[in-house]
Design goal:
With 366 residues, the chain is α+β, with helices and mostly antiparallel strands.
Length: 366
Amino acid sequence: MPADWNDPLRPENAVTLVTGGQVYQGWKGVRITRSMETLSNSFQLTLSDERDNLASPFPINEFDECEVWIGTERVIKGFIGDANPSFGAASRDLSVSGFDAVQDLVECSEFYGELAGLSLLELARKLAAPFGLEVSVSPGLSIGEKFPMIRVAPGETAWSVIEKYCKKRAVLAVSDGNGGVLLTRAGKDRATGKLAQEDMTAGGGKFSAKDRHSTYKILAQQAPTDDFGGALATQLNGSAKDAGVPRFRPLVISAGGSDPGSLAARAKWEASVRAGRSRSIEGVKVEGWRQPAAGSGVPPLWKPNLLVPIESPWLRVNGEMILSKVDFILDDQEGFISDLTFARKEAFELIPEPELGIDSAIEEEE
């Protein structure tokens, strides 16, 4: 008889909070969120004691370092954000929530000034180092050449700087689940199996015409050079069409100085990404927290940035989509489920942004 990996009582599915040298289990309510849309993952755990066994609340305090495990897999390494004990006539309750350690990069600013001759990885590591955070790169990922000059404005958070320069190298920065930052690209891994409509208990599709256009034309001005002069230098443009838009809906976008080839790539990128963002499926609920079993071992947990084959006639999907967000949920209302959000892979495609000159950089910061 095959193992029931959707049983919340299996030790492989037990949720453990480790903090202050203590191990806490037996949580009655669980929500663990992992997403490509935000750098930091988060959790919320609740415990209700109806038998009056707790003489005092657990010694869990805000800012305490912590780890959250599902079975033998660590999913969050960070800190406690809120610890809220309460009681009533019938019970004593405790709610604990927190984040990955990389949340500090999102909320804090420390360094400002200019940096010269750093690669993207060196920049990310420099900004993460004061917080004691590690930055790694997906195997085989090219992060490009060193930046000639990097400018960090006073008050600019570490994450906003990392994100800005990641875009210049078409790189995605996400939490690695172990308290650090991973530089990667969308869709690096595939799910263990297909997700069919009969595997879902709920789900909804979103198909929108908003922000989609029939043609995209990118215009740029460039100072004259030995290769480009006069009118040619000031009339650079590139264009692309979205065959999925039947109406006449053109869009002209002004861009920084570049060359005709990069402008055409930018136009194609606009068409592809906007089309990708216009279609998603959300609130896809499936039993348990694990991917379809594909062998005798423990199936892996759902995780963001997976390419998943999906077949759902009602949601008008028959093909691969990227898992952009997953919520692991355990409570009395919804049971033991995963709440999944999917998007087309094109929604997360990146294109290297052109290097800005000094004047352009100042304008961008203002």
